[in-house]
Write a structure and sequence with these properties.
Helix Hairpins; Heat Shock Protein 90; 3 domains
Protein backbone atom coordinates (compact mmCIF):
# COMPACT_ATOMS: atom_id res chain seq x y z
CA UNK A 1 0.00 0.00 0.00
CA UNK A 2 2.82 2.37 0.91
CA UNK A 3 4.50 1.54 -2.38
CA UNK A 4 1.38 2.55 -4.29
CA UNK A 5 1.12 5.90 -2.52
CA UNK A 6 4.82 6.42 -3.14
CA UNK A 7 4.26 6.35 -6.89
CA UNK A 8 4.29 9.43 -9.09
CA UNK A 9 0.65 8.83 -9.98
CA UNK A 10 -0.44 8.75 -6.34
CA UNK A 11 1.59 11.85 -5.47
CA UNK A 12 0.21 13.71 -8.49
CA UNK A 13 -3.34 12.74 -7.51
CA UNK A 14 -2.87 13.78 -3.90
CA UNK A 15 -1.18 17.01 -4.94
CA UNK A 16 -3.89 17.95 -7.43
CA UNK A 17 -6.63 17.10 -4.95
CA UNK A 18 -4.97 19.14 -2.22
CA UNK A 19 -4.54 22.17 -4.49
CA UNK A 20 -8.16 21.97 -5.65
CA UNK A 21 -9.32 21.55 -2.03
CA UNK A 22 -7.42 24.67 -0.95
CA UNK A 23 -8.80 26.57 -3.94
CA UNK A 24 -12.34 25.43 -3.18
CA UNK A 25 -12.04 26.39 0.48
CA UNK A 26 -10.72 29.82 -0.46
CA UNK A 27 -13.42 30.28 -3.11
CA UNK A 28 -16.12 29.02 -0.76
CA UNK A 29 -15.04 31.37 2.01
CA UNK A 30 -14.95 34.26 -0.46
CA UNK A 31 -18.43 33.39 -1.74
CA UNK A 32 -19.87 33.13 1.76
CA UNK A 33 -18.27 36.42 2.85
CA UNK A 34 -19.43 38.14 -0.32
CA UNK A 35 -22.95 36.75 0.04
CA UNK A 36 -23.10 37.74 3.67
CA UNK A 37 -21.74 41.21 2.91
CA UNK A 38 -24.22 41.71 0.07
CA UNK A 39 -27.22 40.59 2.10
CA UNK A 40 -26.07 42.62 5.10
CA UNK A 41 -25.81 45.65 2.84
CA UNK A 42 -29.36 45.07 1.65
CA UNK A 43 -30.54 44.76 5.23
CA UNK A 44 -28.69 47.99 6.13
CA UNK A 45 -30.50 49.76 3.32
CA UNK A 46 -33.89 48.45 4.40
CA UNK A 47 -33.29 49.31 8.06
CA UNK A 48 -32.03 52.79 7.23
CA UNK A 49 -35.02 53.51 4.99
CA UNK A 50 -37.42 52.42 7.71
CA UNK A 51 -35.59 54.45 10.38
CA UNK A 52 -35.54 57.60 8.26
CA UNK A 53 -39.17 57.16 7.22
CA UNK A 54 -40.20 57.06 10.89
CA UNK A 55 -37.81 59.89 11.71
CA UNK A 56 -39.34 62.01 8.94
CA UNK A 57 -42.81 61.40 10.32
CA UNK A 58 -41.67 62.30 13.83
CA UNK A 59 -40.09 65.49 12.51
CA UNK A 60 -43.44 66.45 11.06
CA UNK A 61 -45.13 65.86 14.40
CA UNK A 62 -47.05 62.71 13.42
CA UNK A 63 -48.72 61.09 16.44
CA UNK A 64 -46.90 57.98 17.66
CA UNK A 65 -49.82 55.66 17.10
CA UNK A 66 -50.06 56.88 13.48
CA UNK A 67 -46.46 56.13 12.58
CA UNK A 68 -46.02 53.84 9.56
CA UNK A 69 -43.67 50.82 9.61
CA UNK A 70 -44.80 49.95 13.14
CA UNK A 71 -46.99 47.16 11.76
CA UNK A 72 -44.46 45.78 9.23
CA UNK A 73 -43.88 42.07 9.85
CA UNK A 74 -40.44 42.17 8.22
CA UNK A 75 -39.09 45.04 10.31
CA UNK A 76 -39.11 46.19 13.91
CA UNK A 77 -39.07 49.82 15.02
CA UNK A 78 -38.45 51.31 18.42
CA UNK A 79 -38.37 55.01 19.27
CA UNK A 80 -36.68 56.08 22.49
CA UNK A 81 -36.20 59.45 24.09
CA UNK A 82 -32.99 61.01 25.38
CA UNK A 83 -33.35 59.14 28.70
CA UNK A 84 -33.72 55.76 27.03
CA UNK A 85 -37.46 55.56 27.60
CA UNK A 86 -39.52 53.96 24.91
CA UNK A 87 -42.05 56.27 23.32
CA UNK A 88 -43.15 54.06 20.39
CA UNK A 89 -42.48 50.58 19.08
CA UNK A 90 -43.66 47.94 16.67
CA UNK A 91 -46.79 46.14 17.83
CA UNK A 92 -46.05 43.06 19.97
CA UNK A 93 -42.37 44.07 20.29
CA UNK A 94 -41.21 42.69 23.62
CA UNK A 95 -37.50 43.24 23.63
CA UNK A 96 -34.55 44.48 21.56
CA UNK A 97 -31.06 43.42 22.57
CA UNK A 98 -27.64 44.02 21.19
CA UNK A 99 -28.54 47.16 19.24
CA UNK A 100 -29.40 49.88 21.72
CA UNK A 101 -31.69 50.48 24.73
CA UNK A 102 -33.73 47.38 25.50
CA UNK A 103 -37.12 48.66 26.66
CA UNK A 104 -39.97 46.13 26.95
CA UNK A 105 -43.50 47.36 26.41
CA UNK A 106 -44.95 46.52 29.76
CA UNK A 107 -48.13 48.64 29.54
CA UNK A 108 -51.36 47.20 28.27
CA UNK A 109 -52.50 48.24 24.85
CA UNK A 110 -55.12 50.78 26.00
CA UNK A 111 -55.16 52.71 22.80
CA UNK A 112 -53.76 55.75 24.57
CA UNK A 113 -51.03 57.76 22.98
CA UNK A 114 -47.70 56.73 24.53
CA UNK A 115 -46.54 60.27 24.12
CA UNK A 116 -49.15 61.44 26.61
CA UNK A 117 -48.19 58.79 29.22
CA UNK A 118 -44.46 58.53 29.22
CA UNK A 119 -44.45 57.24 32.76
CA UNK A 120 -45.84 53.91 31.56
CA UNK A 121 -42.59 53.01 29.79
CA UNK A 122 -39.57 51.38 31.31
CA UNK A 123 -40.21 52.80 34.81
CA UNK A 124 -43.54 50.96 35.31
CA UNK A 125 -42.06 47.72 34.03
CA UNK A 126 -39.38 47.77 36.67
CA UNK A 127 -36.62 48.13 34.11
CA UNK A 128 -33.60 50.35 34.54
CA UNK A 129 -33.36 52.09 31.18
CA UNK A 130 -29.92 53.37 31.85
CA UNK A 131 -28.64 49.95 32.76
CA UNK A 132 -30.16 48.21 29.76
CA UNK A 133 -29.26 50.97 27.41
CA UNK A 134 -25.64 50.91 28.49
CA UNK A 135 -25.32 47.13 28.17
CA UNK A 136 -27.06 46.77 24.86
CA UNK A 137 -25.40 49.81 23.39
CA UNK A 138 -22.05 48.27 24.15
CA UNK A 139 -23.10 45.11 22.34
CA UNK A 140 -24.46 46.69 19.24
CA UNK A 141 -22.45 49.88 19.06
CA UNK A 142 -25.47 52.05 18.10
CA UNK A 143 -25.62 54.30 21.19
CA UNK A 144 -24.03 57.68 20.77
CA UNK A 145 -23.19 59.31 24.10
CA UNK A 146 -22.59 62.59 22.30
CA UNK A 147 -26.23 62.95 21.17
CA UNK A 148 -26.95 65.41 18.47
CA UNK A 149 -28.20 68.15 20.81
CA UNK A 150 -27.52 70.68 18.09
CA UNK A 151 -30.45 69.40 16.04
CA UNK A 152 -33.19 71.95 15.54
CA UNK A 153 -36.87 71.00 16.12
CA UNK A 154 -38.07 68.92 13.17
CA UNK A 155 -34.51 68.22 11.99
CA UNK A 156 -33.17 64.69 11.28
CA UNK A 157 -29.57 63.75 11.98
CA UNK A 158 -27.31 63.06 9.00
CA UNK A 159 -25.52 60.15 10.67
CA UNK A 160 -26.91 56.63 10.54
CA UNK A 161 -25.44 54.06 12.91
CA UNK A 162 -25.63 50.32 12.18
CA UNK A 163 -25.31 47.23 14.32
CA UNK A 164 -26.44 43.64 14.78
CA UNK A 165 -28.98 42.63 17.36
CA UNK A 166 -32.02 40.52 18.07
CA UNK A 167 -35.64 41.32 18.74
CA UNK A 168 -38.46 39.39 20.38
CA UNK A 169 -41.82 39.94 18.75
CA UNK A 170 -44.86 38.12 20.10
CA UNK A 171 -42.61 35.56 21.77
CA UNK A 172 -40.46 34.86 18.71
CA UNK A 173 -36.82 35.97 18.84
CA UNK A 174 -34.93 36.59 15.60
CA UNK A 175 -31.75 38.33 14.43
CA UNK A 176 -31.97 41.77 12.88
CA UNK A 177 -29.74 44.37 11.36
CA UNK A 178 -30.47 47.69 13.09
CA UNK A 179 -30.09 51.29 11.95
CA UNK A 180 -30.28 54.21 14.40
CA UNK A 181 -31.24 57.75 13.36
CA UNK A 182 -31.60 60.81 15.62
CA UNK A 183 -34.45 63.27 15.18
CA UNK A 184 -35.60 66.37 17.12
CA UNK A 185 -39.33 65.99 17.87
CA UNK A 186 -41.02 69.40 18.28
CA UNK A 187 -42.75 68.15 21.47
CA UNK A 188 -40.66 65.33 22.96
CA UNK A 189 -37.24 66.73 22.11
CA UNK A 190 -34.37 64.50 20.95
CA UNK A 191 -35.49 61.02 19.92
CA UNK A 192 -33.66 58.04 18.49
CA UNK A 193 -35.35 55.74 16.00
CA UNK A 194 -34.12 52.14 15.95
CA UNK A 195 -35.28 50.21 12.87
CA UNK A 196 -34.30 46.62 12.27
CA UNK A 197 -34.44 44.55 9.06
CA UNK A 198 -34.72 40.81 9.49
CA UNK A 199 -31.59 38.75 8.78
CA UNK A 200 -33.57 35.57 8.20
CA UNK A 201 -33.06 35.74 4.43
CA UNK A 202 -29.32 36.25 4.87
CA UNK A 203 -28.98 33.40 7.32
CA UNK A 204 -31.08 31.11 5.12
CA UNK A 205 -29.02 31.96 2.04
CA UNK A 206 -25.74 31.43 3.90
CA UNK A 207 -26.94 28.12 5.33
CA UNK A 208 -28.09 26.97 1.89
CA UNK A 209 -24.77 27.94 0.29
CA UNK A 210 -22.84 26.25 3.10
CA UNK A 211 -24.90 23.08 2.75
CA UNK A 212 -24.30 23.02 -1.01
CA UNK A 213 -20.57 23.45 -0.43
CA UNK A 214 -20.39 20.74 2.23
CA UNK A 215 -22.11 18.31 -0.14
CA UNK A 216 -20.65 19.49 -3.45
CA UNK A 217 -17.02 20.03 -2.48
CA UNK A 218 -16.32 16.40 -1.44
CA UNK A 219 -18.01 15.17 -4.61
CA UNK A 220 -15.97 17.59 -6.71
CA UNK A 221 -12.76 16.55 -4.96
CA UNK A 222 -13.59 12.89 -5.61
CA UNK A 223 -14.11 13.68 -9.30
CA UNK A 224 -10.82 15.62 -9.44
CA UNK A 225 -8.95 12.78 -7.74
CA UNK A 226 -10.46 10.18 -10.07
CA UNK A 227 -9.79 12.16 -13.23
CA UNK A 228 -6.23 12.98 -12.12
CA UNK A 229 -5.59 9.31 -11.33
CA UNK A 230 -6.82 8.19 -14.75
CA UNK A 231 -5.11 10.95 -16.70
CA UNK A 232 -1.83 10.43 -14.84
CA UNK A 233 -1.99 6.68 -15.43
CA UNK A 234 -2.53 7.25 -19.13
CA UNK A 235 0.26 9.82 -19.28
CA UNK A 236 2.71 7.59 -17.38
CA UNK A 237 1.86 4.40 -19.25
CA UNK A 238 4.71 4.96 -21.75
CA UNK A 239 7.08 5.48 -18.83
CA UNK A 240 6.04 2.13 -17.39
CA UNK A 241 6.58 0.53 -20.80
CA UNK A 242 10.06 2.06 -20.92
CA UNK A 243 10.81 0.81 -17.41
CA UNK A 244 9.57 -2.67 -18.21
CA UNK A 245 11.65 -2.87 -21.40
CA UNK A 246 14.73 -1.55 -19.61
CA UNK A 247 14.28 -4.20 -16.93
CA UNK A 248 14.06 -6.86 -19.62
CA UNK A 249 17.16 -5.50 -21.38
CA UNK A 250 19.07 -5.51 -18.09
CA UNK A 251 17.96 -9.04 -17.22
CA UNK A 252 18.80 -10.45 -20.67
CA UNK A 253 21.85 -8.21 -21.26
CA UNK A 254 20.61 -7.59 -24.80
CA UNK A 255 21.87 -4.14 -25.71
CA UNK A 256 20.51 -4.51 -29.23
CA UNK A 257 16.95 -4.04 -27.97
CA UNK A 258 15.33 -0.61 -27.75
CA UNK A 259 12.55 0.87 -25.64
CA UNK A 260 9.28 1.86 -27.35
CA UNK A 261 9.04 5.50 -28.42
CA UNK A 262 5.57 7.14 -28.16
CA UNK A 263 4.21 8.95 -31.20
CA UNK A 264 4.16 12.24 -29.32
CA UNK A 265 6.42 15.24 -28.89
CA UNK A 266 6.34 15.48 -25.11
CA UNK A 267 8.87 14.82 -22.37
CA UNK A 268 8.14 11.08 -22.30
CA UNK A 269 8.92 10.77 -26.01
CA UNK A 270 12.16 12.68 -25.52
CA UNK A 271 13.00 10.41 -22.59
CA UNK A 272 12.45 7.34 -24.78
CA UNK A 273 14.62 8.75 -27.57
CA UNK A 274 17.37 9.69 -25.13
CA UNK A 275 17.18 6.22 -23.58
CA UNK A 276 17.55 4.59 -27.00
CA UNK A 277 20.47 6.87 -27.82
CA UNK A 278 22.08 5.86 -24.53
CA UNK A 279 21.49 2.19 -25.31
CA UNK A 280 22.99 2.65 -28.76
CA UNK A 281 26.05 4.39 -27.32
CA UNK A 282 26.37 1.70 -24.68
CA UNK A 283 26.06 -1.02 -27.30
CA UNK A 284 28.75 0.65 -29.39
CA UNK A 285 30.98 1.02 -26.36
CA UNK A 286 30.52 -2.58 -25.29
CA UNK A 287 31.07 -3.83 -28.83
CA UNK A 288 34.17 -1.67 -29.09
CA UNK A 289 35.40 -3.02 -25.79
CA UNK A 290 34.81 -6.59 -26.90
CA UNK A 291 36.61 -5.96 -30.17
CA UNK A 292 39.40 -4.25 -28.28
CA UNK A 293 39.82 -7.21 -25.94
CA UNK A 294 39.75 -9.66 -28.84
CA UNK A 295 42.28 -7.65 -30.86
CA UNK A 296 44.47 -7.12 -27.81
CA UNK A 297 44.43 -10.85 -27.09
CA UNK A 298 45.36 -11.55 -30.71
CA UNK A 299 48.14 -8.98 -30.74
CA UNK A 300 49.53 -10.20 -27.45
CA UNK A 301 49.36 -13.82 -28.53
CA UNK A 302 51.74 -13.36 -31.46
CA UNK A 303 54.79 -11.88 -29.65
CA UNK A 304 54.23 -14.14 -26.64
CA UNK A 305 54.04 -17.25 -28.84
CA UNK A 306 57.13 -16.16 -30.80
CA UNK A 307 59.07 -15.42 -27.63
CA UNK A 308 58.04 -18.74 -26.09
CA UNK A 309 59.08 -20.65 -29.21
CA UNK A 310 62.48 -19.02 -29.24
CA UNK A 311 63.02 -19.74 -25.55
CA UNK A 312 61.93 -23.36 -25.93
CA UNK A 313 64.32 -23.80 -28.87
CA UNK A 314 67.04 -22.17 -26.81
CA UNK A 315 66.43 -24.57 -23.95
CA UNK A 316 66.56 -27.60 -26.27
CA UNK A 317 69.38 -26.26 -28.46
CA UNK A 318 71.29 -23.45 -26.76
CA UNK A 319 73.31 -22.82 -29.85
CA UNK A 320 70.19 -22.01 -31.87
CA UNK A 321 68.79 -19.37 -29.44
CA UNK A 322 67.98 -16.17 -31.36
CA UNK A 323 68.74 -13.65 -28.66
CA UNK A 324 68.20 -10.53 -30.85
CA UNK A 325 64.85 -11.91 -32.01
CA UNK A 326 63.83 -12.65 -28.43
CA UNK A 327 64.79 -9.14 -27.41
CA UNK A 328 62.84 -7.69 -30.35
CA UNK A 329 59.72 -9.68 -29.42
CA UNK A 330 60.11 -8.62 -25.78
CA UNK A 331 60.37 -4.95 -26.78
CA UNK A 332 57.35 -5.32 -29.04
CA UNK A 333 55.41 -6.94 -26.22
CA UNK A 334 56.47 -4.19 -23.83
CA UNK A 335 55.35 -1.45 -26.24
CA UNK A 336 52.01 -3.15 -26.82
CA UNK A 337 51.43 -3.49 -23.10
CA UNK A 338 52.28 0.21 -22.61
CA UNK A 339 49.87 1.19 -25.41
CA UNK A 340 47.09 -0.91 -23.87
CA UNK A 341 47.66 0.61 -20.44
CA UNK A 342 47.60 4.13 -21.88
CA UNK A 343 44.34 3.43 -23.74
CA UNK A 344 42.84 2.03 -20.55
CA UNK A 345 43.76 5.23 -18.70
CA UNK A 346 42.32 7.39 -21.46
CA UNK A 347 39.10 5.36 -21.46
CA UNK A 348 38.92 5.85 -17.70
CA UNK A 349 38.85 9.61 -18.26
CA UNK A 350 42.44 10.53 -17.52
CA UNK A 351 43.14 14.03 -18.81
CA UNK A 352 45.98 16.51 -18.78
CA UNK A 353 47.36 17.82 -15.52
CA UNK A 354 45.77 21.13 -14.60
CA UNK A 355 48.15 24.08 -14.88
CA UNK A 356 50.85 22.26 -16.86
CA UNK A 357 52.16 23.97 -20.01
CA UNK A 358 54.02 22.55 -22.99
CA UNK A 359 55.97 24.23 -25.80
CA UNK A 360 55.05 22.25 -28.97
CA UNK A 361 58.05 23.60 -30.91
CA UNK A 362 60.52 22.46 -28.26
CA UNK A 363 58.69 19.15 -27.91
CA UNK A 364 58.88 18.58 -31.69
CA UNK A 365 62.64 19.23 -31.68
CA UNK A 366 63.06 16.84 -28.75
CA UNK A 367 61.12 14.02 -30.41
CA UNK A 368 62.92 14.56 -33.74
CA UNK A 369 66.32 14.22 -32.12
CA UNK A 370 67.99 10.97 -33.24
CA UNK A 371 65.79 10.70 -36.34
CA UNK A 372 67.97 11.86 -39.25
CA UNK A 373 65.13 11.75 -41.77
CA UNK A 374 63.00 14.22 -39.75
CA UNK A 375 63.20 17.95 -40.33
CA UNK A 376 61.59 20.36 -37.88
CA UNK A 377 60.45 23.68 -39.31
CA UNK A 378 59.12 26.49 -37.11
CA UNK A 379 57.08 28.94 -39.16
CA UNK A 380 59.26 31.91 -40.21
CA UNK A 381 59.03 34.90 -37.96
CA UNK A 382 57.64 32.89 -35.05
CA UNK A 383 60.41 31.51 -32.85
CA UNK A 384 57.84 30.59 -30.23
CA UNK A 385 54.40 29.85 -31.72
CA UNK A 386 52.96 29.55 -28.26
CA UNK A 387 52.34 27.17 -25.39
CA UNK A 388 49.49 24.75 -24.81
CA UNK A 389 48.02 23.34 -21.63
CA UNK A 390 48.50 19.63 -21.20
CA UNK A 391 50.63 16.66 -20.30
CA UNK A 392 54.14 16.74 -21.72
CA UNK A 393 54.35 12.98 -21.63
CA UNK A 394 51.07 12.41 -23.47
CA UNK A 395 51.70 15.10 -26.11
CA UNK A 396 55.21 13.72 -26.58
CA UNK A 397 53.63 10.31 -27.15
CA UNK A 398 51.38 11.83 -29.84
CA UNK A 399 54.36 13.29 -31.73
CA UNK A 400 56.33 10.06 -31.31
CA UNK A 401 53.47 7.98 -32.72
CA UNK A 402 53.01 10.37 -35.66
CA UNK A 403 56.75 10.29 -36.40
CA UNK A 404 56.83 6.49 -36.15
CA UNK A 405 53.89 6.24 -38.55
CA UNK A 406 55.50 8.71 -40.96
CA UNK A 407 58.85 6.82 -40.78
CA UNK A 408 57.13 3.53 -41.73
CA UNK A 409 55.45 5.05 -44.81
CA UNK A 410 57.93 7.73 -45.95
CA UNK A 411 60.30 7.14 -48.88
CA UNK A 412 63.07 9.43 -47.73
CA UNK A 413 61.98 12.40 -45.63
CA UNK A 414 59.62 13.50 -42.88
CA UNK A 415 58.88 17.15 -42.13
CA UNK A 416 57.44 18.57 -38.89
CA UNK A 417 56.06 22.10 -39.16
CA UNK A 418 55.01 24.13 -36.12
CA UNK A 419 52.99 27.30 -36.69
CA UNK A 420 50.50 29.55 -34.98
CA UNK A 421 46.84 29.88 -35.96
CA UNK A 422 44.04 31.92 -34.41
CA UNK A 423 44.02 30.76 -30.78
CA UNK A 424 45.78 27.52 -31.71
CA UNK A 425 49.14 25.93 -32.25
CA UNK A 426 49.27 23.70 -35.33
CA UNK A 427 51.76 20.83 -35.62
CA UNK A 428 51.94 19.18 -39.07
CA UNK A 429 53.76 15.90 -39.71
CA UNK A 430 54.18 15.19 -43.46
CA UNK A 431 55.90 12.37 -45.29
CA UNK A 432 56.70 11.74 -48.95
CA UNK A 433 55.02 8.34 -49.08
CA UNK A 434 51.91 7.20 -50.91
CA UNK A 435 49.46 8.96 -48.58
CA UNK A 436 46.22 7.67 -47.12
CA UNK A 437 43.24 6.91 -49.37
CA UNK A 438 40.36 9.27 -48.72
CA UNK A 439 38.03 6.39 -47.80
CA UNK A 440 40.41 5.29 -45.02
CA UNK A 441 41.23 8.69 -43.49
CA UNK A 442 38.93 8.16 -40.54
CA UNK A 443 39.28 4.41 -40.24
CA UNK A 444 43.02 4.58 -39.56
CA UNK A 445 42.28 6.26 -36.23
CA UNK A 446 40.35 3.22 -35.00
CA UNK A 447 42.07 0.80 -32.67
CA UNK A 448 43.95 -2.16 -34.15
CA UNK A 449 43.24 -0.95 -37.68
CA UNK A 450 46.06 -1.41 -40.17
CA UNK A 451 45.68 -0.94 -43.88
CA UNK A 452 46.61 -3.85 -46.13
CA UNK A 453 49.79 -2.21 -47.45
CA UNK A 454 50.80 -1.35 -43.88
CA UNK A 455 50.44 -4.97 -42.85
CA UNK A 456 52.85 -5.98 -45.58
CA UNK A 457 55.51 -3.54 -44.36
CA UNK A 458 54.72 -3.63 -40.64
CA UNK A 459 57.76 -3.61 -38.39
CA UNK A 460 55.97 -4.34 -35.17
CA UNK A 461 53.12 -1.86 -34.97
CA UNK A 462 49.80 -3.09 -33.59
CA UNK A 463 47.56 -0.41 -35.08
CA UNK A 464 47.23 1.54 -31.81
CA UNK A 465 49.54 4.51 -32.41
CA UNK A 466 47.13 6.72 -34.36
CA UNK A 467 44.20 5.76 -32.12
CA UNK A 468 46.20 6.82 -29.07
CA UNK A 469 47.28 10.06 -30.79
CA UNK A 470 43.70 11.12 -31.58
CA UNK A 471 42.40 10.19 -28.12
CA UNK A 472 45.13 12.28 -26.48
CA UNK A 473 44.45 15.19 -28.83
CA UNK A 474 40.74 15.13 -27.99
CA UNK A 475 41.50 14.95 -24.25
CA UNK A 476 43.57 18.13 -24.67
CA UNK A 477 40.73 19.96 -26.41
CA UNK A 478 42.28 19.64 -29.84
CA UNK A 479 41.88 17.70 -33.08
CA UNK A 480 43.94 15.32 -35.21
CA UNK A 481 43.16 14.89 -38.90
CA UNK A 482 44.91 13.60 -42.01
CA UNK A 483 44.94 14.82 -45.59
CA UNK A 484 47.16 14.59 -48.67
CA UNK A 485 50.24 16.76 -49.22
CA UNK A 486 50.78 18.54 -52.56
CA UNK A 487 53.30 15.82 -53.48
CA UNK A 488 50.89 13.00 -52.62
CA UNK A 489 52.12 11.97 -49.17
CA UNK A 490 50.22 11.93 -45.88
CA UNK A 491 49.90 15.09 -43.82
CA UNK A 492 48.75 14.69 -40.19
CA UNK A 493 47.60 17.96 -38.66
CA UNK A 494 47.44 18.33 -34.85
CA UNK A 495 45.64 21.43 -33.57
CA UNK A 496 45.80 22.39 -29.87
CA UNK A 497 44.38 25.50 -28.13
CA UNK A 498 46.93 27.97 -26.82
CA UNK A 499 46.98 29.32 -23.27
Amino acid sequence: MSRRFGSVRARATLGATFVVAVALLAAGAAVLLSLRSSLTGQADGQAERSARTVAAQLALGTPYDKLSSLDDDERVVQVVDANGGQVAATEDLERISGAGPSVPRAQEDTGDDPAEEPGQDAGEAGEDPGENGGEEGASGGLDDDSAQDALEPGEIGDETRFGDGSATVDGDTADYRFAAVDVRDPKKGLLTVYAGASLAAEQSAVRTALTVMLIGFPLLLAVVAGVTWLVTRRALRPVEDIRREMAAITAAAELTRRVPEPDTHDEVARLARTTNETLAALETSVERQRRFVADASHELRSPIASLRTQLEVGVAHPGLLDVPGAVEDTVRLQRLAADLLLLARLDAGEGPVAGARVDPAALAREEAAGRPEVTVVVEPGESAPGEVAGSRGQLGRVLANLLDNAHRHARSAVTVTVRRAVGQVVVEVADDGDGVPEADRERIFERFVRLDDARGRDDGGAGLGLAIARDVAVRHGGTLTVRRTPTGGALFELRLPTV
